[in-house]
Amino acid sequence: MPIRLLSSEVSSQIAAGEVVERPASVVKELTENALDAGAKNISISIVDAGRTLIEIADDGHGIPSDELGLAAARHATSKLTQSEDLFHITTLGFRGEALASIGSVSRMSITSRAASAKEGARLKVDGGVSGKVERVGAPVGTVLRVENLFYNVPARLKFLKADVTERRAIDSLITRYALAYPNVRFKVTDGKQSTLQTSGDGDRRSILAALYGVDVAKQMLEVMAQEDGISLTGFISPTSLTRSNRKEITFFVNGRWVQEFSLTTALLQAYHTLLMVGRYPLTTLFLEIAPEDVDVNVHPTKAEVRFKSQDKVFSFVQRSARKALMAYTPVASVSPQMWGSRSGSTESREVGIDWSIGHSSDQLTVDAGQFSNAEGGGQSAEETVNGQRSTINPSFAPVPLLRLIGQIGSTYIVAEGPDGLYLVDQHAAHERVLFEKLMAQHDKKNIPSQSLLAPEIVTLPPQSAKMLLSQLPFLNHFGFEVEEFGSNTFQVRAMPVLFAGGDPSFALRALVEDFEEDEAPLQTEIEAKLAARVCKRLAVKGGQTLTSEEQRQLLNDLETCNSPRTCPHGRPTMIHLSVDTLERQFGRKGAR
Predict the structure, then answer these.
(1) pLDDT class of 237 with cuts at 50, 70, 90
(2) Integer Cα distance of 202 and 187 in angstroms
(3) Which is the CATH superfamily of the domain at 354-592?
(4) Average pLDDT of span 395-411
(5) Which has the higher per-residue pLDDT, 18 or 474?
(6) Pairing relationship of beta strands 388-392 and 381-385 according to DSSP bridges
(7) Of 484, 449, 485, which Cα lies nearest the Cα of 470?
(8) Which range (32-41, 112-121, 327-336, 361-370) has the least confidence?
(9) Which residue of 15, 131, 150, 513 shows the fewest CB atoms closer than 10 Å?
(10) What is the DSSP annotation of 460-505?
(11) Cβ atoms of residues 540 and 501 within 8 Å
(12) Which DSSP category does 519 fall into?
């Protein structure tokens, strides 16, 4: 096949593929242009998750009418004049590719008026072909409309994800920029519904409250550090406030949102030994460094950076975050009651769990005769779950009757069985108990609810609120009574009786925060998986002191479960030390 030059149309679409991956990419590029223009008010309108329309209006300095045609040309920019400027970049945009790339895969119009002009101008670009500049009346600033994104690139359009996923990506992007630029007033509209609006008063903590709720905003720890020309500001979460993934770890470098692995690693090192495995902090940090010490011209999306002194920046971020954690985190103290006998007050301590329902008629039961070898290997048994029988491994065999001995470290329950010693993880065990009770009630279509004395108000980030809003019928089906209560805010009026005393906000957040980008909406998820998430959040926690009666009740409930030896996520609920093992450890039967 002979070598030939590509047409301008094909080369433009190839270049656009590097910059415009999805609707969120368009929003990012245009928002950054508005910020570079000095805008104090940015209004973003989205229709059909950005497929039909993305409109961004700002009150920045605008584009002169005689430069409007050049603005949509490839490699045209006002932010660079020579190659040396690439190593001293102080603006968010600089490559001169964004508008040309967007215009090549959509129907785009730019309406702008410079502050010194008496009238505005408009330019339309259809699939990379620019029309004539028209004189129009317009306020100072720029309005950029992107319609029918990827209409001329059907292959790219086909690979876009579901609307809820694309909306979530846009909302996540704008919330980050709202935190990075608190002096700018952002307004986001999805169709006719306003999903985000900030005041632009410069108070980042108030923006945190609008995005995540007042309770979360109050808990966030402020970071302020400066050293050798590098500064780090922002907020990190205490060790008690975590997420199940890294999505809420946000870094800005010189006002630019970046996804830099070394910065994330430095932050996680600051939390080393302080967080459980698989838990991550909620952070928004802003790193300011001399422009010549950071290279942002690494990738067309400008999401990756390289530092001149990588180790220096890594160490600075790690020490600054760790210092803030230590400054706000009190030293843990151990109560003498943990080591002595329990007093009457300790026995009656409330832990927020309703143990009285331990032996309700809705519990699942197991016929121990199904299992021929509870501890052995190589044999299988049948388990009945949700009305279906399936072959299971003997490791899921029922546990024998256990005699309570006590609690260790407010986390593990020690019990004696006929064949040795059992160490039970109270959190994992309670997860299993709640899960099987909830699924049993679900199968019988009989999940009793209990109204809350005072409705619980829960605020979620916009991307999570949209997902939850469409799934309210699912929550009602599981015994929750949840209704919309303002922008990104919900009111919980009732909960399943099974979770009485639990925190409703934990349940709502569990349904939305763990979802990966590629996961389907909630209605196509397996209900058991979602129920397991809720049970994990509302189960008794490790480190929570239980009374003897509560410990005994938990063991009794666990004995009646179908799969008592693992939690719904597969983690073991107990460790068994047989009498034979103990005798070997004590030298009664020789060395191990």
Answers:
(1) very high
(2) 15
(3) MutL, C-terminal domain, dimerisation subdomain (3.30.1540.20)
(4) 80
(5) 474
(6) antiparallel
(7) 484
(8) 361-370
(9) 131
(10) --HHHHHHHHTTHHHHHHTT-EEEE-STTEEEEEEEEGGGTTS-HH
(11) no
(12) S
All CATH 3.30.565.10 domain ranges of the chain, comma separated, are 8-200
Identify which of 461, 460, 463 has the alpha carbon closest to the alpha carbon of residue 163: 463
Closest CA to 270 of 221, 323, 225, 322: 322
Write the CA distances from 515 to 165, 466, 467, 511, 519, integer angstroms: 10, 13, 10, 8, 6
Contact 57, 142 (CB under 8 A): yes
Helix or strand holding residue 169 (H, E): helix 163-180
pLDDT of residue 338: 35
Q: Which of 217, 220, 250 is nearest to 235 (CA)?
A: 220
Phi and psi of 250, rounded to 5°? Answer: -120, 130
- CB count within 10 Å of CB 228 equals 9
CATH topology of domain 8-200: Heat Shock Protein 90 (3.30.565)
Could you tell me where in the chain the CATH 3.30.230.10 domains are found? 220-328
Number of other residues whose CB lies within 10 A of the CB of residue 365: 11
pLDDT at residue 154, as a whole number: 87
Per-residue pLDDT, averaged over 269-273, amounts to: 88
Cβ atoms 468, 480 nearer than 8 A: no
List, as one string, the DSSP characters of 254-284: TTEEE--HHHHHHHHHHTTTTS-TT-EE-EE
Closest among 134, 137, 141, 150 to 43, alpha carbons compared? 141
Q: Work out the mean pLDDT of the chain and round it to a whole number.
A: 79
CATH class belonging to 220-328: alpha beta
Buried/exposed code over 512-528 (b: 16+ C-beta within 10 A; e: otherwise): bbbbeeeeeebeebebe
Pairing of strands 41-47, 53-58: antiparallel
Residue 91 has which token pair? 């603006």
Q: Are 571 and 276 in contact (CB under 8 A)?
A: no
Instruction: State both tokens at 189.
Output: 């509209």
Mapping DSSP to helix (H, G, I), strand (E, B) and coil, where does residue 538 land?
A: helix
pLDDT the model gives residue 94 = 64
Residue limits of CATH 3.30.1540.20 in the chain: 354-592
Overall average pLDDT of the 134-149 stretch? 95
- The H or E element spanning position 208 is helix 204-212
pTM (2 d.p.)? 0.65
Tokens 């720890």 label which residue?
A: 221
467 neighbors 522 (Cβ within 8 angstroms) = yes
Chain-centre distance for alpha carbon 40? 28
Tell me which residue has tokens 């950029």: 144
3-state secondary structure (DSSP) of residue 431: helix
Distance CA 176, CA 207 (A): 10
* Residue 390 pLDDT greater than 80, yes or no: no
Contact (CB, 8 A) for 381 and 389: no
Tens of pLDDT, residues 489-520: 888 888 888 887 777 777 777 767 655 444 45
Q: State residue 476's pLDDT score.
A: 77
